[in-house]
Amino acid sequence: MRIPSFLQKTALFYSDGFRSMTVGKTLWILVLIKLFILFVILRIFFFPNYLNTHFKDEQSKANHVRQELIDRKE
Q1: What are the two backbone dihedrals, phi and then psi, of residue 2, each rounded to the nearest 5 degrees?
Q2: Core-most of 2, 18, 57, 73, by most CB within 10 Å?
Q3: By the 8 A CB rule, do 55 and 68 touch?
């Protein structure tokens, strides 16, 4: 399967750009660390899994979600 020239040129453009970066690599590392903190660390501390800690089986979880959706609609 042959890659179209547009996609190939775009991939080469970005790969050459990332290869020649000096300060940009450090900035990308900072961005990745920030994303890791936002999505992994904060999720652990601020968004616990409520259903798994309060209900034992799938049926009771489903009933709770169903009841919450009905109550919030009214």
Answers
A1: -95, 130
A2: 18
A3: no
Q: Is 15 helix (H, G, I), strand (E, B) or coil?
A: helix
User: In 3-state terms, what secondary structure has residue 69?
Assistant: helix
Q: Answer yes or no: are the C-beta atoms of 16 and 8 closer than 8 Å.
A: no
E-state strands within the chain = none
Written as one letter, the residue type at 14 is Y
pLDDT tens digits, one per residue of 36-65: 998 888 888 888 788 888 999 999 999 999
Q: State both tokens at 22.
A: 């000096």
Alpha helices by DSSP H, 1-74:
5-19, 23-36, 42-46, 50-54, 58-73
CB 51 within 8 A of CB 61: yes
Distance from C-alpha of 14 to C-alpha of 6, rounded to nearest angstrom: 12
